[in-house]
Amino acid sequence: MSAPNTISEQLVKEDQPKSVALPRGIRLLKGITIPVILILSCEILVRNGVIEPYLLPAPSSLWQSLTELAEGDLWQHLWASSWRVFLGFGIGSGLGLVFAILVGLNRHAEDFLEPTFSAIKSIPSLAWIPLLLLWLGIDEGSKITLIAIGAFFPTYTNTVAAIQGVDRKLIEVARVYRLKYWQQIQQIVLPAASPGILTGLRNSLSLSWMFMIAAELIAATQGIGYLLSDGRETSRPDIVIIAIILLAVLGKITDSIMKLFEHRLLRWRDVIKKS
Fold first, then answer.
1. Which of 27, 203, 236, 237 has the fewest CB atoms lying closer than 10 Å?
2. Helix pair angle (237-265, 190-218), 10° resolution
3. How far is CA 79 from CA 164, 227, 229, 246, in A?
């Protein structure tokens, strides 16, 4: 474990108690227990006629539909949705960080911006779609903008709260070290607020997938949202379920990557160890 490289990390760094971690295989087995139970339950209910196949296809029959999609343009749909999410997430969360740092550190900026952002934050995602279609049309611009709006507010809200929750004693220590204002932000405020910032980024990424679906359901010819819409219009519940599963898998993968990134950045913290 590398030594902490900022003052705030040095102040919170202590000897961490050792904990016995469960083998990765056991943790994986626990993680897939509930999905396996749900799949087996659905299979049994459909095969015994409790649930009609046209409402919920048997999980075993979904494999054939997935194979047909994979032989077609499934990968193009996945790529289209993925790059929209990552681009919208990058733009929205980046702007969220900039405005959050400004509002969190400047009282005048908070007085000017916070009331407006609080009002905009309460607007549902579907309410933006007609306006974005009028302004930007049905091209990619409207989809990316909607995803960016969804990614902006979790990052902004969590970052502002994290910055304003930084212990004042850390700032006093920075003054003792005679750090300049920007050095205080770089070495004290941002490291101390990093847990809240990273939580906001994870929430923003999750919301980006949700807003992506909202955008693609309205106007798209490619993407997971398009698969959902196409399955509904053609009365293909298997396509709809496959699209939902793909969305869940992609969301889980990206969240796990963000969680690993968060763990590596915050490995200096002395936190409660799970038994």
1. 27
2. 170
3. 38, 13, 17, 12
Any alpha helices (H) in 55-167, and if so which ranges? 59-71, 74-105, 107-121, 125-136, 140-164
Domain limits for position 155: 60-265
Residue 15 CB: number of other CB atoms within 10 A? 6
**How is residue 49 annotated by DSSP?**
T
Tokens standing for residue 110: 């908070």
Q: How far, CA to CA in Å, does 74 sit from each of 88, 223, 230? A: 21, 9, 13
Q: Which residues contact 22 (CB under 8 A, 6 or more apart)?
A: none
- Residue 244 lies inside a defined structural domain of this protein: yes
Amino acid, res. 26: I
Convert the pLDDT of each residue in 4-60 to its tens digit: 555 555 544 444 444 445 577 787 888 888 988 998 998 898 888 888 888 888 888
CATH number at residue 70: 1.10.3720.10
